[in-house]
Amino acid sequence: MAAEVLNSTVVLRLSICAEPNICASISPPSQSPNPLAASITRQSKDDMNKRNDYIQDKWKKGLLPGIDCILFGNGEVITANTHCLTDTNTKKSKQFWFPLCDTTITSLEKYEDDIWTNIEIFHGAINYGEQKIVFGDGSMGNEGFVASTNKKGDLIWGIFFTFSNPIFNAKIINNELICVSELEIEIKIELNNLTKISIENKSMY
Fold this sequence. Notes:
The protein is of the alpha+beta class. It has four helices and 14 strands. The strands form three sheets. Strands 2, 3, 4, 6, 7, 8, 9 and 10 form an eight-stranded antiparallel sheet that branches.
């Protein structure tokens, strides 16, 4: 009986060893396109095009978000924080502007659908490569803006200021956009990095 068990065991081992190379016979999984990923990509492009059309429609109607921010033509937004500090000894004030966070116009409108304000473009636009820089004021006397458009007049980016007063003049020196408001507030914007903005009140000196 013991011999039979032993023989059976040997046969079993031989059968396992005699099996063909299973790994060699397995084909790699098919690399067929992922329909879900393609659908998501297509939906993202559709949403981006709709957002771009929406922004351009607002721009052509003379509207920008009435908050301190940078609005891009694709609907992306960089909100900003701005504040003013006054030296108690000299009584001189210094205005500061710095980026706060990245968001979208869709997200902003989720909490405030009346975020848009009327703007007026002043004469004196300046050329910058394939772009045109325009500037002007908002609907309130304390507001101003500067924006870049392409040859067709579509918005590339626009920066709105709630404190500047109307911007009536601008020039570019060494890729730095210098805007001057009617209260002699000078706003310098690095065109290679729009979030680098410095402010100086010339009337204080």
